[in-house]
Amino acid sequence: MKRERVESVGFQHGRGEFIRRNEDGFTLIELIIIIVVIGILTTIAVTRFQDLTSDAAVAATKGNLATVRGAITLIHAKILIAGVTVSNPEFPTIVEVNSNRTSSTRPPSVRDLKLIDGPSGANCQNPNICMPENTVSSLGTLSLRSLVVGVTAADADARAVTGGSGWAYSPDSGDFYVNQVLPVDGKGVTANRW
């Protein structure tokens, strides 16, 4: 004998059974579980996104660091070819690095050379914004994050941090580095040691 499906909720006469309507949907517990799972996934995604943002800033700073170091090495080689003298020091000076242009008093072969592509000399927005930005710096202004301060060769060897600028440079040794300790990169190396 075939049973008929009862679509209404209620008591079926004559059998003593309570029959419920067949409804599709989620129970309250299933909805709560789904909301909890979505919350956990969101937390994981936000954490990973924050890691990506800081990793991108570290990578950008390391890229800027490599660009300036390469430029200093190239200018240094050109200076050595031109001949080192009192008026033609072996490495670019702090003023030359901050203005992104070698001095007009240098020999003709190394006179008025840009270190990196971009504004230089009087074309800088101000004297401190010719160098690329230290993107991991917590300093408040672009000019401070782009500023290069001079340090001695001994301070550069020790990777001493003076604060107040994005970069540190020794015109005696040609060392150029990040002028802060934090952050630490994925390999545990502090910023001033990159």
Which properties best describe this structure?
3-stranded mixed sheet; 8% strand; 194 residues; single chain
Structural features, described:
This protein has 194 residues and is mainly α. It has one domain. Helices cover 37% and strands 8% of the residues. A three-stranded mixed β-sheet has the order 3-4-5. A two-stranded antiparallel ribbon has the order 1-2. The N and C termini lie far apart (83 Å). The model has no long low-confidence stretch (mean pLDDT 87).
Please describe the topology of this protein.
Blueprint: E1 10-12, E2 17-19, H1 28-82, H2 94-99, H3 142-146, E3 148-150, H4 153-158, E4 167-169, E5 176-178
Parallel strand pairs: 3-4
Antiparallel strand pairs: 1-2, 4-5
Strand % is 5-15%
**Radius of gyration using CA atoms only:** 32 Å
- Counting DSSP E segments of at least 2 residues, the number of strands comes to 5
If you average the pLDDT, what whole number results?
87
Put the structure in a nutshell.
The chain has helices at 28-82, 94-99, 142-146, 153-158, and strands spanning 10-12, 17-19, 148-150, 167-169, 176-178.
